[in-house]
Structure formats: structure tokens, C-alpha cells
Fold this protein.
Amino acid sequence: MNVTYAQIDGFKNLSGISFAPDPKYNIIVGKNAQGKTNLLEAMWILSGCRSFRGSKERDYVCLDGVKMSSKIKLLDSVREQKISYEMIKGVNQQKIIHLNGVRQKGTRQLFDVFKCIAFIPDDVDIIKGSPEKRRSFIDMAASQLNPIFVVHITKHHAVMNQRNALLKEIMQGKAPREVLCIWDRQAAHEGTLISYMRNEYIAKINGICGKLYEKISGGSEKMEIEYKSNVFKPEDFQKPCGEDAYLRYYEKLCESADYDIRTGSTHSGVNRDEIIIKINGVSAKEYGSQGQIKSAALVMKLAQAEIFRTKSKESPVVFLDDVMGELDENRQKFVFDIIRDMQVFLTTCNESALLPEIKGKILRISGGKIIEETDNLSPHRE
């Protein structure tokens, strides 16, 4: 999969951006706060995913602007496709999304079309951050392989909102407790499906991460990823995902119902799952060094790309935001070996810090605009 054309205007500080990317490497060079990361973000949102920086949609439009637009053409294994995302500032913050000229109700369809993976400095939070960070990473990565996962996550989120609102009403005596079972059965169905999907993906990524981490550590360390379900034991996943599993999940919700009502929130289910990452048998979050944590996060993202490429027979587009320059030469080579057959967009303040092998189009950005675009190599790379 390759992006063949990009046009961005009014997204944060970006103005009048248009270029035809190199099919391999696109090196976005500029000082801090000039728009390098904004360029990656403006393209990333066309994948249907939330901003990898956590930006709110209302912040997409430039502070003193009224409209933003981001458009790309991409070539997958079948055909060329076009995606456009426009937003007009106002009371309702109107959002206009087109896929191949057809207006979309939301971003859901984009997720099936534009497959990309972003590496950012904050990826270390996958290791040292909250359980929610790890769950979100696994859910998004698994959804790239099977988009139906997004549907179940969305449904479960809606059911949880309704259940938690009902818990508060029951606590206040405004609703009968018997109504809770209606939402519990829906939560049990969606939660069970999510649990099984998480377990399946973690089994895949665990094997690949183990091999990659052994390589990046020179064979001296071992990495493991373990799924700790709040409802199911590891042996439960040997059984089919069916009525018995739904019932187990439902009973778990019933067991915590009294406490849930007293607190007004749900304390059982996939929203309480944990993904445990170990290095040499101990928790990386609790005992990992800074170097180990960075390496583990990097390996998890690389494994995500490798799993997607193997499953779909097509490479995702890769965004590297200020990552390569922070890695030593050995780790850069390690990353380069994994992504060498993928289209890459990377940002850097100093292109001389990159490996000479990383050759491609150079885009120099200043003040939100491309001030120089060249396919020629900079002196240190010739």
C-alpha cells in the first residue's frame, strides 16, 4: 500500500501542502513546532483512527481559520482510492468525509481502506502506562486484521455507558434493579467476543515479539506478553466462544452487581483486563530499565506491522515521528530491516542522524509550509 498524493490545508498550522510521496522513504525535516508532526497527523486521521497525539477533532482547524482539509490518493493491491476529510468550524463543527467520491456518515469505512502504523515517542506508555493504554493498543492492532472487532468494541462501549447510567439510577432509587440484567446480557455477549479476540491477537503478537526482542537484545533477554482476562482463565480460551462463555461472563457481572450499584460503575469485564509485558520473567512496567521499555515498545509496534503484512499480504504505511534519530545505529538498522519494504514517512530535526540507507524524498517544512521538496540526497547520504 502506497500513498501517491497528499494535499493538506488549514490543519492546525499547515497551509497549502501538496506533494507526491516517494514510494519508499519520505523524510520530513524541520525545526521543532514547524508542522512536521502535524503533517503525519493530518494523513493519519484518514485511516479512520483517532489522532495518535490525542488531539480533539475541534482542534484540527487552525486557531484563526474556519476550515481544514486533508486528502490523499493511495494505491493498494487492487486499485487507486481517494480519501478526503474536511471540517468547517462552527457551532456544529461540520465534518465532511468522502471515500472515492462517496460521502460517508463517519470514519468507519476509512478504517478498512487506509492501513497505517505510527511510531511516536509516547509509545513507551504501552509498556509503562495504564492498563487502558495496553488494551487500546491491542484492540486497534487486532481491528486492523479484522475490522468487525471495531463494531464489537463500539457496541460494548455503548452498552457500558447505558449500564453505568442505570447503576446510578438504581443507587438513587430511580430504576428497578431487575432492568440491569438486560444490559448485562448484552455486555456479556460483546465482552466475550472482545475477550476471545484479544486472546487470539496476543497469542500472535507474543510469538513475534519474542523473536524480535531476542534479536534487538542480542539474544541476552527474553520478552513475553500475557493476557490477563478479568473474566476468563487461560484454559477457558481452549473452549469455543459460545453460550457457556457468555454465561460465565454474565455471572461475573452478576457477582459484582451489588458493588457496582454502590459505586455507580462497572468493575467486571473487558474494561478491567490487563496485558502483562515481561522481560526475563518480570514486569517491564515495574522493573524494566528505560532502554528495555523503549525496546519493548518498539518491538510491539514492529510486530504489529509484521502481523498485518503477513495476514493481508500487503504492507501498511508507516509513520515514524521523531523516532529514528533517537535510536542508536544498531536499533535503526533493526527497524530498517523490518520496514524496508514499506512506504515510510518519518520526521526529524536532523537528517544527518539517520542511516545512510534511508534514501528518498526530502520535504523541508517551516511555518507550516513546504519550503523545499527534492528527490536529491543530502550531502551526508550521497
In short: The chain has ten helices and 15 strands. The longest helix spans residues 180-216. Residues 378-382 have pLDDT under 50 and may be disordered. The longest strand covers residues 67-75.
